[in-house]
Design brief:
The strands form four sheets. Strands 1, 2, 3, 4, 5, 6, 7 and 8 form an eight-stranded antiparallel sheet that branches. Strands 12-13-14-15-19-16-20 form a seven-stranded mixed sheet, covered by helices on one side. 19% of the residues lie in helices and 30% in strands. It has helices at residues 5-15, 85-88, 147-155, 178-191, 219-222, 224-230, 263-274, 299-307, 309-315; strands at 29-33, 42-48, 55-60, 73-80, 91-97, 105-112, 116-117, 121-124, 133-138, 161-165, 202-205, 239-243, 247-251, 280-284, 319-321, 328-331, 334-335, 338-339, 345-348, 367-371, 375-382, 385-392, 397-403. The longest helix has 14 residues, at 178-191. The chain has two domains: 24-124, Sandwich (Immunoglobulin-like), CATH 2.60.40.10; 133-403, Purple Acid Phosphatase, chain A, domain 2. It binds fe (ii) ion. Fe (ii) ion binds at residues 167, 207-209, 286, 324.
Length: 404
């Protein structure tokens, strides 16, 4: 009996317990992250159905229509052992491209012999220097429902990258949750596409729904998906990323794998001191210091205000991106836990897919605006000022403000 190659491939996938999405003749999931300067580097991450001898990435500044021999550059993607392999054998390979030209569109194909190559994909490096950039931000997403229109709308904003502030796929650090992560990755890959077809790199911070309750000091065991997918953005779960000359962005862990106090706060102090002369300083983390749904005196919010708030005040953090409460809010300028003329503005609170929660009849004393509306933020960073716009899941602008 003659068995087609396609049937054999499908049988291999099914025996291994893969989802139907994985049974395609190409690396099923490709996503972009940063582990270095976003104007000259990028990480191309590939999830391959099982460990293979080698994964190749071919790239160029011109389209080569997928003809691997025509691309000027070739690298082997490095295998990274992750606990994701314990879910369904999927293996992670990362091509950490360096020495790229700023503000340049790159085309690539990636894959290997057994599972095939991607179609040609493209991304753009950040412009670098003080040239304007745009990103989108949200959190509390999930893989269904409002995440679909919101991701579609976010891609159409033509962002340079997307910041996801925790509670990403809602799998709670459980290895059996691979089908949900598959949908999340597929959504981002299919929907978070710019109007000219570029992929949008993911810049992630951790949330409570990335972690399980397994008692261990091994952070990979506590958050196998988050550390597997996004664990190379920094040497720790919390990390700093510079975006050009004018933006230092701090990504923090609001008590999920690392406590607010102690090593993380001392690290944050050193980083804020190191970047104190950078024009704009942003932070993104999951649990809000100034919540718009949960109680002001909630433990996580209090810890943030106690340990991070004074540092934000001392170093003049420009804007904090908060999540977790699943409503919309923009704070008044705050410093020393008071409303001031010039202070940090806290925006949030994560509602990039999950249904909104409720807000109080009147905004809390520290908030300028609160709404029970799903949304994401669009942020334009330029030397002469910042512009912020919040867009809901129907594409309506629900708030704008600027900082100069
Ligand atoms: Fe949360």
């Amino acid at each position: 009996m003659k068995i087609s190659k396609h049937l054999v491939v499908c049988a291999i996938f099914l025996c291994a317990g893969f989802t139907a999405v994985l049974a395609s003749a190409a690396p099923p999931y490709v996503y972009l992250t940063y582990s270095d300067a976003p104007d000259t580097s990028i990480d191309i991450n590939l999830l391959i159905p099982a460990k293979v001898p080698a994964v190749d990435v071919y790239y160029d500044t011109e389209s080569r229509a997928g003809k691997t021999d025509a691309y000027i550059n070739h690298v082997n993607a490095a295998y990274h052992q992750t606990l994701m392999e314990l879910s369904d054998r999927r293996a992670l390979y990362v091509a950490a491209l360096k020495g790229l030209k700023p503000g340049t569109v790159y085309y690539f194909v990636a894959g290997e012999a057994k599972y095939g190559m991607t179609t040609e994909r493209k991304f753009r490096t950040l412009p670098g220097g003080s040239k304007p950039l745009r990103f989108v931000n949200g959190g509390d997403m999930g893989a269904d429902g409002r995440a679909i229109p919101l991701l579609t709308l976010a891609g159409k904003q033509d962002p340079d990258f997307g910041v996801v502030g925790g509670d990403i796929a809602y799998v709670n650090g459980l290895l059996g949750g691979y089908a949900t992560w598959d949908r999340w990755l597929e959504n981002w890959d299919r929907l978070m596409i710019t109007t000219d077809g570029r992929m949008v790199p993911i810049v992630a911070a951790i949330g409570n729904h990335e972690t399980n309750s397994f008692e261990s000091n091994d952070l990979q065991l506590r958050a196998p998906w988050y550390t597997g997918l996004f664990g190379r953005q920094g040497t720790d779960i919390y990390y700093t990323r510079r975006f050009g000359n004018d933006l230092a962005f701090f990504f923090l862990d609001s008590g999920h794998l690392n406590s607010h106090a102690g090593a993380q706060t001392e690290w944050l102090r050193r980083e804020l001191e190191k970047y104190k002369d950078v024009k704009y300083k942003f932070a993104a983390y999951h649990v809000p210091l100034y919540p718009a749904h949960r109680p002001f005196d909630g433990a996580g919010s209090q810890l943030g205000r106690t340990h991070w708030g004074p540092l934000f005040d001392q170093y003049g953090l420009t804007v904090a991106f908060e999540h977790h409460d699943r409503v919309f809010k923009r704070s008044k300028p705050l410093k020393g836990n008071q409303v001031v003329r010039r202070g940090t503005i806290y925006v949030g609170d994560g509602c990039f897919g999950r249904d909104p929660r409720t807000i109080d009849p009147q905004p809390r004393w520290y908030n300028a605006i609160e709404k029970d509306v799903a949304h994401f933020w669009v942020v334009d960073v330029a030397r002469n000022g910042l512009r912020f716009k919040a867009i809901d899941d129907h594409g309506r602008t629900i708030d704008t403000f600027s900082v100069r």
